[in-house]
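Team,

Forwarding the record for the chain on the shared tracking sheet. I've put the sequence and predicted structure together so nobody has to dig through attachments.
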Amino acid sequence: MSKGTRTRQHIIARAATVFNTQGFAGTSMADLTRQTGIEKGGIYNHFPSKEALALAAFDYAVTLISQRMQEVMAQEERAIDRLYAITNVFRSVIDAPLVPGGCPLMNTAIEADDTSSALRERAQETMSSWLRLIGGTVKQGIANGELRPDTDPRMVATIMVAALEGAIMLSKLYDDSLYIHRAVEHLIEYLQSLAS
């Protein structure tokens, strides 16, 4: 890996923390230079704008979570166990965060609605991929006879993401992981109720 590539990756990884804790609008170039240890001109050598860096940092942060999802799902044979594993990945956003600040998708989706159409679009794409992942896992569970045939994959995906993201927000707001743990426990019971 070249020095330029290493520097770019360093900037992205450090910027991900800043954007995820302070938001796009709340992050200044001074914040980014302080966090990365790289002068403004050095950052602009790698990224044409703050928004371009924010997009790269968002991609980096959500990729870490998506990779964790793929890793834990690969360890499970049954679709229903993969769904349980996904709930635990969301729990880890609070208990063992890969990037400080909560869920980067939720943070970006909320803020980008008013500040950046490019970030909003990227958040929508990522959310759609997570919903497809969960929905596809539910379909697989139906096909394998693990879940009732009348189970609606889109409904399950919506309920899971809404409950987990809402619980992450509550846990961050109250600085108490109890909310994410309650949501995960509830979702496990919900998924068990769908078992055939």
